[in-house]
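Entry type: protein chain
Record version: 2
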Amino acid sequence: MQYRVEELAAATGVTVDTIRFYQGKGLIPTPNRQGRHAIYGTAHLARVQQIRSLLAEGFSLAQIGRVPPPGGGIESAPTSPAEPGHPEADSDALLGALAEQRSSQRVFSRAELAAHAGVPEDVITAAQAAGLLEPTQRDGVAHYSVVDLEMLQNGLSILGAGLPLSEFLPLASEHDRNMRAVAERGIDLFDDHVRKQAADGDAPEVVADAFRELLPRLTRLVALHFQRTVVRQAMERLRAKGEGPALERALAAVEASPLESSWLEGGARR
């Protein structure tokens, strides 16, 4: 059976823009052409349905792009499902691995987080009040992610350098308030210039994928800017006082090196 793009969209319950978005991402093959019209086939229909199903299960478009289409693609010759290397078997194996990877993303209770960080639970409460930790609620119980654990461990390392907790936590709270205000304005920009550009607002997977792509870039932009600002202001203060040539060299080396943070790369692993 053959479909024009409007017919394929109607048959799969998505918009025409969504079909074109998938095609632009390389998730579905380029259609055949008949004159000015793009013509899609049953394999395109099956692939779009597969994408929709996997999105509903919580997989990202980046993950779905690694999953072979049903039957192995538009031009694939059929092989036995039991045969090693069969596209459907490969697809099932990959989906299983992705599901395992997703389910392995650890969450912690408050007591577990305190135990892993080696601190009393009162410290968790104080760090949460300062905005350093932000748990999710499941059935009324707070759960913390690996990002919360890394945030807490980094905070403790900073305190270990000699900063007093009584002054560090108010500074963290002030940063949290300012960051939230900037984040609200950034979300407004995304809402006005990205979300509202989606066709009639009825292509949520398009918006979600755009958000997934923008978030790690935005996060890294903010982190790099903050690092650069701290380094430069510290260097200016050292120069003004005429002190600390060794520390100034260290700061210069920090500024020249790439920012490293495990949860910034490719977005937070949440």
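Comment: The domain at 5-103 is CATH 1.10.1660.10 (Multidrug-efflux Transporter Regulator; Chain: A; Domain 2).
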